Structure formats: C-alpha cells, structure tokens
Amino acid sequence: LLLLLALILLATTAEAGKNKKEKVKKEGSECEDWRWGPCVPNSKDCGLGYREGTCKDESKKLKCKIPCNWKKKFGADCKYKFESWGGCSAQTGVKTRSGILKKALYNAQCEEIVYVTKPCSSKIKSKSKAKKGKGKD
C-alpha cells in the first residue's frame, strides 16, 4: 500500500512538471537571434538592474546584477582567464597582468586580451606585519 502511494505521488509530480514546461514554451519566444544590451543598474553604477533584449519586433527585459566591487573598464559581461601578476615596475610602481577572453555573455562586444594593473605592495611592510601578528611571548 505504501509503495502504491509513493508511485501515485511520483506520477502526479511528474505530470505537474510536464505542465510547467509546456507553459514556459507557450509563454517563451520562438525567436533565436536575441541581441542583448548591457546590464543597466537601477541606481548609481552597480547593484540590481535590468538588460533589454530585442529580436525582430519583440523585446524583453531581464533582471541582472553588477557587483559593486566591479570597477573594470571591460564590463561585467566579459569573462577573462587571467595570468599571474608580473613583477613590479620600478619606474611606474605598478604590476600588470593580462587576461584572455574566456566568455562573452549576452553577445557583449569584448576585447580578446585585456591588461590590468595594481600598485606594488612593499614586501618589507607585509613581512613586518606578519611577524607582529605571530609574535610569541
């Protein structure tokens, strides 16, 4: 009796899943060549927002999010694989690394290779901080 009840429950759940899939197909678009714009935050330059898409005479809005620590000039829709940081340049006081395009989301226009820099940290300062934190009496 318990086994029969479990089978009926499983069949009901599977049937409900089919109905949901059919509804999504009916509501969805048959257009396959969507062009998506950038994620536009609702306020300021980061956080929750939306992106608009068009396909033929149809248009849609999707929710999106730009992380607030995202300050890169190449945009949140371009995903890169980065190398390790290079050595510190004595002339500029910065170190550099490059990234190769891994994925462009929503048909974003992305550069194939990007370069990012950050200030060099003083190795003497970081070592002295580590010694102070590990001091034993």
SSE succession: HEEEEEEEH
Note poorly predicted spans. 18-27, 124-129
Number of strands: 7
Structural class: alpha+beta
What is the alpha-carbon Rg in Å?
25 Å
Largest sheet: 4 strands, antiparallel
Report how far the terminal alpha carbons are from each other. 71 Å
Average pLDDT for all residues: 76
**Principal-axes shape call:** elongated
Strand content: 25-35%
Helix count equals 2
> Helicity level, as a percent range?
25-40%
Domain Pleiotrophin/Midkine C-terminal: 75-136
GO cellular component, one term: extracellular region
Main location: secreted
Family: Belongs to the pleiotrophin family.
Molecular structure report:
The structure is a single chain. This protein is α+β, with helices and mostly antiparallel strands and 137 residues long. Among the domains are: 32-67, Single Sheet (Heparin-binding Growth Factor, Midkine, Chain A), CATH 2.20.60.10; 69-123. The protein contains two helices and seven strands, in the order αβββββββα. Strands 1, 2, 3 and 4 form a four-stranded antiparallel beta sheet that branches. It has a three-stranded antiparallel beta sheet with strand order 5-6-7, with no helix packed on it. Strand 6 and strand 7 (113-119) form a beta hairpin. The chain starts with a helix and ends with a helix. The model is unreliable at 18-27 and 124-129 (pLDDT under 50).
